[in-house]
Amino acid sequence: MSKGSAVTISLAAYIMADPTVVGIIEDRLYNIHADTTENTPYVVMSRIATTEELFLDGPSGMEDSIFQLALYAETVSELDTLRDALNDRLNGFRGTMGTVEVGMVAFGNEVDGRDSESDFKFKILDYRIVLNS
């Protein structure tokens, strides 16, 4: 059975437990869709893939998920500060995260852009989270 909901909830709580990140985004961490886009900076978190590691004799119980964090801000400087705070918090983490046991969190990809409607700048960050069984 997938641990997707548990890891999503645990990741959000782990991010929001960091005083540096909260000092930047306050309570503006959203799952899948932002409730509002009036105040920046903010983060939208999405689980974009989950796979289960298999052994020859069946499921291993280990899951591997990719989470995308979409960061939005008015300036590139704000984005860079937020990106650094999130990366310091997440990249390389191993241990208990909420209700799940994490074998590894690894930064994987970064894309920059600008939202044509709001003119906000954005960064998309991908993190791989491997859960222990």
3D structure, described in words:
It is built from 3 helices and 6 strands, in the order H-H-E-E-E-H-E-E-E. It has a single domain (4-131), classed as Phage tail protein-like (STM4215-like, 2-Layer Sandwich). By secondary structure, it is of the alpha+beta class. It has helices at 4-16, 19-25, 76-90, and strands spanning 29-31, 42-55, 58-73, 95-97, 100-114, 121-131. It is elongated and about 50 Å long. A 6-stranded mixed β-sheet has the order 1-2-3-6-5-4. The model has no long low-confidence stretch (mean pLDDT 91).
Q: CATH superfamily membership, which one?
A: Phage tail protein-like
| Secondary-structure content class | alpha+beta
| Count, helices | 3
> Helix-strand pattern, N to C?
HHEEEHEEE
CATH names the topology as: STM4215-like
The radius of gyration is 15 Å
Strand content: over 45%
Percent helix range: 25-40%
End-to-end C-alpha gap? 11 Å
Give the neighbour order of strands across the main sheet: 1-2-3-6-5-4
CATH architecture: 2-Layer Sandwich
Summed up:
With 133 residues, this protein is an alpha+beta fold.
Map the helices and strands.
Blueprint: H1 4-16, H2 19-25, E1 29-31, E2 42-55, E3 58-73, H3 76-90, E4 95-97, E5 100-114, E6 121-131
Parallel strand pairs: 1-2
Antiparallel strand pairs: 2-3, 3-6, 4-5, 5-6
Helix pairs in contact: 2-3
